[in-house]
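Illustration 12: Glycyl-radical enzyme activating protein.
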Amino acid sequence: MASKGRILQLQNYSVNDGDGIRTTIFFAGCPLRCRWCANPEGYTPKNQILYVASRCIGCRRCEAVCPEGIPFDFQSPQARERCTGCGACVDACLEKARKNTVTEYTVDEIVAKLESQLRFFRNSGGGVTYSGGECTMQAEFLAELVDAVYDMGLDQAIETSAYFDLEALQPTLDKIDLLFLDIKHMDRDKHLAFTGVDNDLILRNIAALGAQRGGIVVRIPTIMGVNGDDDNISRTAQFVKDHLRDPQIELLPYHPYGVDKYVQLGMPYDEGEFRTPTQEELQHLTDIIEREGVRAVSFK
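Figure caption equivalent — predicted structure in C-alpha cell form:
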C-alpha cells in the first residue's frame, strides 16, 4: 500500500516561500515547541479538532456521533483529553464549527494537485515548498514526495528548523534547490527556554550544510523580547558569515495571527510576552546584519 503523509494544508499561490508562485505543503508534527508558534496545530502529526465556539448552535449532532461520548461543548480540558481526533463530529457539524487539522495524502494525490498548478509554476519561475510543522519529521514520505517532484522538473524549497538527522536527510536535501533554515536564537539556554530544545544540533547542521552547498537562506523569526536585540542579531550574522558560502539572512517579523488557533485547540498562549518589531527596529537590525557582511533578503 502506498505510504501516506499527514498534511496540515496545501497552500496554492504562495509567494513568500521562495521564488515565483508556489504551492507550500505544510506537514504535521514538530520536535520544537516555540512559544510564539503561529501553527500550533502542527505540533503533533495526529489529527486534532479546531473548535470555533461562536459558530456552535448547540444542535448536539456532534455529541450524537462521537464514539467517546464527548459533550458538544468542546472547551473543557477533559473533553480534549478524551478526543481521539476521529473527525466524526466534523462531518456531522452543519455550522462548520469544527475542522480537522490533518489530512492524509499519498504522493500520487499530491502530485495530481501540483499538476493543476503547473502553468503558474512555469510562468513565474515558482515551484513547491515543504514546510510545517517540521516536514523532516516525516522523513520517509518527504523523500518520496521530493523524488516525485524532482522528476517533474519543478523548483523545490524547504523551510525547516534544521533540527534533524543530517546524514539520514542528505539524499533528500540534495534534490532541494533552496534551503530556508531557521536560527531562532544563538544563546543555547534561551533557545531551550523558548523552543523546548537547545540549538546544538541546529547550528551543527547549518554549518555542515554551509560547507557543502549554496542555496541557503537563514531565517530569523524576529520577536522583540526574545531574539530581536542587537547582540543576538549580530551573533547570528557572524555565524552565518562564517559558515555560508553566500551568507543571507531574512528577518521574519513576529505576528500574532495564530492566536485564534490556540483558542480553537484549547491551548494556552502567552500572548503578552512577545512584540512585533516596528519598521524602524527592523531597519536597524537589517543594518546590523549588513555591517557584518551578510546580505539581508526578503521573499515577501
